[in-house]
Q: What sequence folds into this?
């Protein structure tokens, strides 16, 4: 249920209303916009007398929300959420470029890529330290050592680092990581999501291979209901019957998620297509349809990459793409 207060509602009366609602065992999420304040009521709202609340002189309207996701629902929070990572902002008109290799392989590699993508305008550095691979025989990442190498690259360039966490038990290793990424395979790892909800760190949540938008939002709800509102949604392609590309990039998810939720939405064209030559056109399309950012794989030697070289751009290719992305942003704005 949401309670929309009138503009310039009396502050003392508002506090009294909130105290009364909390006395019914409800959690109250307060969203203060430019023109109105919205109270999001979470819990057993059946006991709330809608007509009584609506009759109060400070209340403009009362509505029941039928969707099961509440915290990330735009009805609860009409204004866009802006996630801050240091000086970098995502959402609410702020566009973010995240770039870097699929996996961290060496200090020389990650620092070289970090310097290159920063020179091309990237805002954050991505790099896999823990790698969930389909085959147990494939490179699984450098793990803790990889995180330390990412920190070195951050020190060299100033770029905040984004890397994937796979297990609750690894959380201590991620204390100094700027953005924790939840990969597609872990989108419904609810124990992990609950723990991430208690970290207070920005979480980049990727859509699962075969998950609906509602399921993605419910996963975001797990994080937010545990106390962490710093969530970034990521469309990275879903599995369909087509086999020419690694996945099928669902760009309709971007405007749909913006309609349903106030959270920022970014797109990963690298994992969606699996082919480096398709990354630029899909990145431009994602920009045009309103994405709040892009996360793109860049490697200084894709042919010899230990992971996903086929979908990685070279630094030179990324530089050309970054210029085109800026041109598209200027055109659609």
A:
């Amino acid at each position: 249920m949401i309670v929309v207060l009138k503009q310039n509602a009396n502050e003392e009366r508002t506090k009294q209303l909130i105290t009364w609602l909390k006395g019914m065992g409800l959690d109250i999420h307060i969203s203060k916009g430019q023109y109105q304040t919205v109270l999001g009521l979470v819990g057993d709202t059946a006991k709330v007398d809608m007509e009584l609340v609506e009759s109060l002189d400070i209340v403009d309207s009362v509505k029941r929300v039928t969707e099961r996701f509440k915290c990330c629902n735009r009805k609860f929070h009409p204004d866009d959420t802006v996630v801050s990572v240091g000086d970098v902002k995502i959402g609410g008109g702020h566009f973010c470029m995240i770039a870097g290799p699929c996996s961290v392989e060496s200090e020389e590699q990650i620092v070289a890529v970090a310097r290159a993508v920063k020179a091309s305008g990237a805002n954050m550095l991505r790099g896999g330290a823990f790698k969930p691979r389909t085959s147990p025989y494939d490179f699984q990442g450098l793990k803790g050592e990889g995180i330390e190498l990412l920190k070195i690259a951050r020190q060299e360039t100033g770029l905040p680092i984004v890397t994937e966490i796979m297990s609750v038990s690894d959380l201590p290793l991620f204390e100094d990581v700027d953005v924790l990424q939840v990969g597609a395979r872990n989108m419904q790892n609810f124990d992990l999501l609950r723990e991430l909800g208690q970290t207070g760190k920005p979480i980049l949540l990727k859509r699962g291979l075969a998950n609906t938008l509602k399921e993605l939002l419910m996963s975001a709800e797990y994080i937010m209901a545990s106390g962490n509102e710093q969530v970034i949604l990521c469309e990275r392609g879903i599995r369909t019957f087509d086999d020419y590309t690694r996945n099928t990039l669902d760009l309709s998810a971007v405007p749909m998620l913006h309609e349903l939720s106030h959270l920022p939405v970014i797109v990963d064209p690298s994992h969606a297509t699996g082919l480096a030559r398709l990354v630029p056109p899909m990145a431009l399309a994602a920009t045009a349809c309103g994405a709040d950012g892009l996360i793109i794989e860049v490697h200084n030697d894709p042919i010899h990459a230990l992971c996903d070289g086929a979908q990685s751009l070279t630094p030179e290719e990324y530089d050309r793409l970054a210029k085109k992305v800026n041109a598209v942003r200027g055109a659609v704005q």
Notes: The two ends are 34 Å apart (CA to CA).
